[in-house]
Write a structure and sequence with these properties.
The complex is a heterodimer of chains A (about 325) and B (about 350). Chain A is of the alpha/beta class and about 325 residues long. Chain A is built from twelve helices and nine strands. Chain A has two domains: about 45 residues, no CATH class; about 200 residues, 3-Layer(aba) Sandwich (Glycerol-3-phosphate (1)-acyltransferase). The N and C termini of chain B lie far apart (about 75 Å). Classes of the chains: A alpha/beta (about 325), B alpha/beta (about 350). Chain B: This is NAD-dependent epimerase/dehydratase domain-containing protein.
Chain lengths: ~325, ~350
């Protein structure tokens, strides 16, 4: 077992985590130059050695960059590339290394769009997105700690502020369950944007808001019905009926292979506001509406650009 | 400088170390240690040398403490007599913690000589909840306030300390919220947990844990006893460890059990006296807790010497806990694959 010397600890956790993971993803998945089989094997065993001895670092939110990059993202990436054929646009609008708040539409019955956005930002923008999740996620076994390990945390003003001030890229879906659980007939219509807490957080930290439109998630599980009683009994916000679920049982859980586009729009600056404006409800409402409208416009344009959801069929 | 420091809780490990360290400081005139039981003797019971500490045996729940403070011209009080560990009964523990603190603060309020009060508290006052922010600062409002055991006592104690600080603004009152102590000689529910051969964990949860090394805890308490830093401060080593990381470092096998079963196991373990596993510990083992200790770092211009990970490794090293078979298996596989 290897021990971490005390001096390592004093130098701060982030300073260590980020370069390590960056270096690894550069030499690993992106393939900078040919690697011999022996080198890859040695790397694999070094990884296994670190994992079994617990000799890796996580940040204070529980983010485990090594597990995320080497295992979890590797599992999602084939879905991103081959199942949904995601195309990511406007990556230059995502700041390369400073704090920003990505605000996106939420849809698809199950929050698959969050996973795809994470892959998009990791692979195309080379940033780890720190999503702010619902309470329900952190109450559930397995899901809660997996969510923390992939870098996400509970949507609270404290956590959002802390992450933004550390220069992290934070992602939110202000529609919440209203968005992800809306019926298929309401597709691509943005729901109410919560209470604008995300705007308050961005103004307070003085970081830009990057509007993000995700097209394609609406068609993966077209929600045509609901079991409200059963949902209440199970303590979940909704229990969907789709054309294939629960009709085909577990097979109905396979998402339909719609074509996806993810676009990051022009950042909306918040540093023009005084941090005290974060407490002015009118400023917050107006900016919330501005962000919402920007995303709705982006969504409409992107939907036209994509064309049919299931090419070449319809 | 005529410092007379009163230290409560000297029969426990950290208290004894603080008393010993203060007694070794030539700038301090007298160190008076009080507790309900005499400290373990260094020669017979492996206790710590307390140096020139004068020991007074008093029951903290009585007003005897007022007489000591009045008679001995005490100017600094370091209150560490908070029992977290196994107590004979819950009510005895509560009385010791809460009534003891009330008596002590009552005596301090009357005293014309006391200039500084340092109280040991715990980060357990923030609770552990899936609804709380990931990282607590001193100003974070706890979401699920713990209403059992040690954490509840600590909340009540802090309430009385706040009241005291309000009534005596001339006294520098510091409250130190310590993360779980870790180190070679710490005896706490958590260190006892990690000393077991097989570690039960709550299925589907992997809490973030934070430790403070006993050396750092002693240093902070001594600094606070000598300088005025009024306010509330979190004290924790840098970084966090996941429980899964801790058990991998310890090399111990785990048994994930569903949380109701874990609770039942805790009750059973408590009744048999193996480990003391209370409801707030169950919450910690499910949801974890991390605190921000930058306020302390700014006030003292000092950082803990041990990170959370280093403190835990020091604990493992000193207890000789190191199961090596998972690593041995990787090495064996690696040897097998590369020889080819």
């Amino acid at each position: 077992m290897s021990e971490i010397p005390a001096s390592d600890a004093v130098s701060g956790e982030d300073a260590q985590i980020i370069p390590i993971s960056a270096a690894r993803s550069a030499s690993g998945s992106n393939g900078s130059g040919p690697q011999s089989a022996d080198e890859r094997l040695a790397e694999l065993f070094a990884f296994l050695r670190r994992r079994v001895t617990g000799d890796y670092e996580i940040d204070e939110f529980g983010f485990d960059p090594e597990l995320n990059d080497k295992v979890l993202l590797e599992l999602i990436r084939p879905i991103y590339r081959h199942w949904f054929r995601v195309e990511t646009l406007g990556v230059r609008n995502v700041p390369a290394d400073s704090g920003a708040l990505v605000v996106a539409n939420h849809s698809g019955t199950l929050p698959v769009d969050a996973l795809m956005m994470q892959v998009a930002l990791h692979d195309e923008a080379h940033r780890a997105v720190r999503l702010l999740g619902a309470h329900l996620v952190y109450q559930l076994p397995v899901l809660g700690h997996l969510s923390r390990k992939t870098g996400h945390t509970l949507a609270t003003p404290e956590d959002a502020d802390r992450l933004l001030r550390k220069g992290e890229l934070v992602g939110v879906f202000p529609e919440g369950f209203k968005g992800v659980g809306k019926p298929f007939s309401q597709r691509y219509k943005l729901q109410r944007f919560g209470r604008g807490g995300f705007v308050t957080a961005a103004i307070r930290a003085g970081v830009p808001i990057v509007p993000c439109a995700i097209v394609g998630a609406e068609e993966i599980y077209p929600k045509i019905g609901d079991f409200p009683m059963l949902a209440r009994m199970l303590g979940v916000p909704y229990l969907p009926v789709t054309p294939f679920f629960p009709l085909l049982g577990p097979l109905g859980l396979i998402p339909l292979p719609s074509k996806w586009l993810i676009e990051f729009g022009e950042p909306i600056r918040t540093d023009t506001f005084d941090p005290a404006d974060a407490d002015d409800p009118l400023v917050v409402f107006n900016l919330t509406d501005q962000v919402r409208e920007a995303i709705q416009h982006q969504l409409d344009a992107l939907r036209l650009r994509r064309g049919p959801a299931f090419p070449p069929f319809f | 400088m005529t410092h007379t420091v009163l230290v409560t809780g000297v029969c426990r490990h950290i208290g004894a170390r603080v008393a010993g360290a203060l007694a070794a400081d030539p700038g301090i005139a007298r160190v008076i240690g009080v507790d309900t039981a005499p400290p373990p003797s260094p020669t017979r019971d492996g206790g710590l040398p307390l140096g020139r500490t004068e020991f007074v045996r008093i029951d903290l729940r009585t007003s005897d403490i007022a007489r000591v403070i009045a008679a001995e011209d005490v100017d600094t009080v370091v209150h560490m007599s908070l029992v977290s560990g196994p107590a004979k009964s819950r009510s005895a523990m509560m009385e010791h913690n809460v009534i003891g603190t009330m008596q002590l603060l009552a005596a301090c309020q009357r005293s014309a000589t006391v200039r500084r009060v340092v109280v040991r508290s715990t980060t357990a006052v923030y609770g552990s909840s899936p609804h709380a922010p990931a990282v607590f600062t001193e100003d974070t409002e706890p979401v699920d306030v713990p209403h059992t055991g040690y954490a509840k006592d600590a909340i009540e104690v802090e309430g009385y300390v706040r009241g005291f600080a309000r009534r005596r603004p001339d006294v520098a009152t510091s409250t130190l919220r310590f993360a779980n102590f870790m180190g070679p000689r710490v005896d706490s529910p958590l260190t006892r947990y990690f000393s077991q051969p097989v570690l039960p964990t709550v299925f589907g949860f992997d809490p973030r844990l934070q430790f403070v090394h006993e050396d750092d805890a002693v240093e902070v308490l001594c600094r606070m006893a000598l300088e005025d830093h009024p306010g509330v401060f979190n004290v924790a080593g840098d970084g966090v460890l996941l429980l899964s990381q801790c058990v991998r470092r310890a090399g111990r096998p785990t048994v994930p059990v569903p949380s109701p079963a874990f609770e039942a196991l805790g009750v059973f373990a408590r009744n048999t006296g193996v480990v003391d596993f209370s409801p707030e510990q169950l919450a910690l083992m499910s949801h974890g807790r991390a605190v921000d200790s930058s306020r302390l770092a700014a006030a003292l211009g000092w950082k803990p010497k041990f990170s959370t990970a280093a403190a835990f490794d020091d604990f493992l090293r000193s207890h000789g806990i190191a199961g090596r078979w998972p690593l041995a298996m990787v090495e064996w596989l690696s040897g097998l694959m590369t020889r080819r």
